[in-house]
Structure formats: structure tokens, C-alpha cells
Amino acid sequence: MYSTLNRFLKYVTYDTQSVDRAEQTPSTPGQLVLAEVLGKELESLGLMDVEVTPHAYVTATCPSNIKDANKKNKVPAIGFVAHIDTATEVTGKDVKPSVVTNYDGGDITLKDGDESERVVLSPKDFPYLLNYRGQDIVVTDGNTLLGADNKAGVAEIIAGTEWLIQHPEIEHGDVKIAFTPDEEVGHLAKLLDIEKWGADFAYTLDGGAVGEICWENFNAASAVIDIKGRAVHPGKSKGLMLNAVTMGQEFNALFPPSETPATTEGYEGYYHCLSFNGSVEGVTLKYIIRDHDTQKFEERKKFMEKAVKWMQDKYGSDRFVIDMRDQYRNMADKVKGHEEIVELALSAMRELGIEPNIVPMRGGTDGAALSWRGLVTPNIFTGGHNYHGKFEFISVQSMDKAVDMMLKILELAVKK
Ligand SMILES: [Zn+2]
């Protein structure tokens, strides 16, 4: 019925992996390539105000078709947002998706070969696969991520808009579309001109399984610690050598092992050492810091600074340099007073018979940043699982549920 699957299969073939701490936006040229493709598609659907910026933002409007001017004025302009880049952890180049039709609940061999090469998507590792028995599942070839995060969102938004255009009998207000670059590297839709775009509020379609909805997310910061050692010939280095590797180990040991992503869930915050690179001469450690609670988040950042200070006092202030930056904030503070926006999505779920799964998101979205800039933007599901890795998958039926969801939100907004 919807064009979701075909669109999705096309979009994932574009390599739009973003890179961290790039000087420019988009961080990688592939994102602009896809942005231009999407812009052309939106134009050919007949949308208005289609714009593709040099920074790989795509915006467009599907104008209200409500004839009664009085009624038209009362219906809000609702935005739908998805990001076009894919995660940094696993390559998004040469994605070769395949569709497992009528999934039987067994193992899916993504990649065959001897034991070291074989990649198998199994319900033993991922029990929720069994929820998709009888459905059609899109999977990877075991070499790359899939890119359902967030190209499923892109495909769903365009498929939903296409449906509206093909069904002019369905009344709707202004539908505002925005596709953004570099979400995975914390760009936070900074260059989206909210005023010009014109949505009264919005939803990101950037969540997980059907029913997921979120209006709470982490407060987030990143920290890079550069450690300068002193290399001396190991045969003559007693009392002289300063090994940056062991200094880095000593630094990392200051953080509680019970407060990492692997040991926390729900509302528990953490410190996460993303990478540890270097040699005797110098080492760079990259961290992220996360907490839902604003006060605890501030305390975590202070602790990071204290840990650096501790090491500086021991080894000299020039040997430890910290670059800590805020990334995004919890949107919950901004949703307060605008609960009707969340309620609209929840009523849409109820009408579609979807059980809402309200999650305090252990991540962030462009929606968090947009909310802080005044455009309340909760996050709703796209249908996928196992993001940022080779085991990523999404069911076709789930993607279509997300389109149903978008259309139902628009329908209820007219009825209200
Ligand atoms: Zn995402």
C-alpha cells in the first residue's frame, strides 16, 4: 500500500555515514548527495517550498487541503523530522539489504562462511526477533549497518506524504518535512531555520520498535583528554620516562565501573570511554557523559574535571588537557506545559491499537535540541532494532505502522 519499503531499500544504498568533529556540515559529502535525491523526490511529488541547502538540510511543505478557512486556521502545522546520516561505529558503505519474507522465527544467516566469518542474526541473541514471526524483515549482509536509523524515518515520512497527495479526500493541515544531517555526531539540527520552516510543533521519527515514544532523553556532554608523556629509551628510563599509556589507564580507573553503558539502564547515568588511542609519547581518551537528571549531569561533569585536576596535580598541568563540550539537553523540561503534543501522539497510538511504550531515551535526538530552541519535538518509533551495528533490522510491517501513525496524528489534529 505505502511506498515505504521501496524507498527505504533505495535510501540505504547511499553512503551517508557521518564523522565526528568535522569542520563542516555535512561532515561527509555523501549526505549532500542523498539530500539532493530526496529534494528531487519531494519536488516530483508536488510538494511546496522544497529546499535543499548546501549543508544537506531538506525542507518542504505539503500544504493544508482544508477548504473551510475558519477550520484551516485552527489546525496546527505539524512537522516530521528524520536524519539522513548513519552512525559512526559501523560502515554504511555498500549496504546490501535483503528482505526475509514471512520470517519463520529461526536463525537468519546474514553472512555465510567459516566460523570466524559467519554472521547470524538469531533469536537466541535477540529474543524480540520472535515478535516478527510471519512478518517481512529487512536485514544486512553482515558487513555493514542497515541504516534504518534513520532512513526508515525518511522513507516513512515521504511515503506518508505521498499517501496524502494520492488521497486528497483526507483532510490535513500543513505538513512540514525536514531531513537533517549529522545527527549521529551531535550536530543537533543547528542550521534548521525553525521560523522559516513554520511548524508549530514536530515529531522526530527516530525511535525503535512499534509503540516507542519518548519525550525524555539524556543530558549529554563529550570530553576529550589529551595526555602528554615523555618517551625515553626503555633501557635508560628509570625515573625519566612518563608513559602516557599507563597515565591514561590510571586516569580511566578513576571512574566507577558500575557507571558505564554496560552496567546501567533506565534513568541511570554513566561515563563512557569511547576510545583510548596512542603510545608512550601521547594518548587521547574520548568520553561521553550522560544523565537524565540535570543536577546529577552537572555533578558528573564536575567529577570529570576533578579527575583531570587530580592527574594534573600528580604529573603537571601541561600533561593533561581536557576539552569538554555540552552536546544536548533533556527535552522533558521543555515539554512541560505542552503535554497536548505528547497526548496527540498517544491518542493516535490508541486509535491504531498500538500499545505505547514510553521510554526515557538513553540517547538524544535532534528533537531534544529543537525543543530547547522552542519547537517541541517528541520522538516516535520507526520500527527498527539493533541500531548502529550489523545486526540492525526492521520489519516492513513496522515501517508501515509508522506511516499509519503519522497519518493518524494528522487526522486527529484536524478533528480536535
Ligand atoms: Zn537516529
In N-to-C order, the SSE pattern is HHEEHEEEEEHEHEEEHEEHEHHEHEEEH
Average pLDDT over all residues: 96
In DSSP terms, counting alpha (H) and pi (I) runs of 4 or more, how many helices? 11
| Overall number of strands | 18
CATH architecture of the largest domain: 3-Layer(aba) Sandwich
- Rg calculated over all Cα atoms: 23 Å
The bound ligands are: zinc ion
Structural class comes to alpha+beta
In terms of per-residue confidence, which ranges show pLDDT below 50 for 5 or more consecutive residues? none
The total tally of domains equals 2
Task: Please estimate the helix content.
Answer: 25-40%
CATH superfamily of the largest domain: Zn peptidases
Q: Which topology of the largest domain does CATH recognise?
A: Aminopeptidase
Major β-sheet annotation: 8 strands, mixed
Shape: globular
CATH class of the largest domain: Alpha Beta
In percent terms, what proportion of residues is strand? 15-25%
How far apart lie the N and C ends?
A: 27 Å
Output the strand order for the largest sheet: 1-2-8-3-9-16-10-15
| Oligomer class | single chain
Please, could you describe this protein's structure?
The chain is α+β, with helices and mostly antiparallel strands and 416 residues long. The protein has two domains: 4-217 and 330-415, 3-Layer(aba) Sandwich (Aminopeptidase); 219-328, Alpha-Beta Plaits, CATH 3.30.70. It is 31% helix and 24% strand. The protein has helices at residues 4-11, 29-44, 69-74, 148-166, 194-197, 244-252, 294-315, 332-335, 339-352, 366-372, 396-415; strands at 48-52, 58-62, 78-83, 98-100, 108-111, 119-121, 137-139, 175-180, 201-207, 212-217, 219-228, 270-278, 282-291, 320-328, 357-361, 379-381, 384-385, 393-395. Strands 1-2-8-3-9-16-10-15 form an eight-stranded mixed β-sheet, sandwiched between helices. A hairpin with a 5-residue loop joins strand 1 and strand 2 (58-62). Helix 4 crosses helix 11 (396-415). Zinc ion (ZN) binds at residues 83, 149-150, 183, 206.
